[in-house]
Amino acid sequence: MYSKEIDLLINLLSSLQGIGPRSARRIALQLIAKKNTLMMPLGEMITDVAKLIEKCKICGNYDSKNPCSICTNEKRDENIICIVEEVSDLWALERGRLYQGVYHVLGGTLDAIRGISPEKLNIDYLFKKVREKKINEIILATSLTTAGQTTAHYIVSKFKGIDIKITRLARGLPAGGELDYLDEATLSQALYERISVNKEMDTKA
Ligand SMILES: [Zn+2]
Prior knowledge:
Layout: H1 4-14, H2 21-33, H3 35-52, E1 54-55, E2 62-63, E3 77-84, H4 87-95, E4 101-105, H5 124-132, E5 137-140, H6 146-158, E6 165-168, H7 184-192, E7 195-196, H8 197-204
Parallel strand pairs: 3-4, 3-5, 5-6
Antiparallel strand pairs: 1-2, 6-7
Bound molecules: zinc ion.
């Protein structure tokens, strides 16, 4: 039905998360119809981004600078690390424009069923950073999904006995919701009113 090239384009588009074959066909048609005004510039932009963007070696953010512009910004407090699951969560927090610390992107959550063990996440490097630098506080901003909470518990357990302030985002976030779906004000509020995990642990003990 389609030429080999169009077929390939549709296949590539439908490999994107959230885009099924029907959407892929529609997008392909739109692109072809707007060849000069949309398809060509998009193609060039994709090539540029692919060439220029790297994963930050310190925090895991994506940027054309490595270390990224957050890690190299002198105004940011590098002694406060906010731990997030994905770069999308980092972007969500940055949209709030309130947070002045730095980040650590885990690259996912622990999940025994899917075989995601601590080694598969960027966790060891987090401990290394905390040990080597004078980190005052880590903020757990993992999602309230079961996997997100399991990951947060694991991190807290690993920091047992280490003198560091551990906080988590305040309640008020929808359970099971990912940070990216929240509006900036809610997210900034949850960050501003963050709760001490150390205290919670002491009460339980
Ligand atoms: Zn960075």
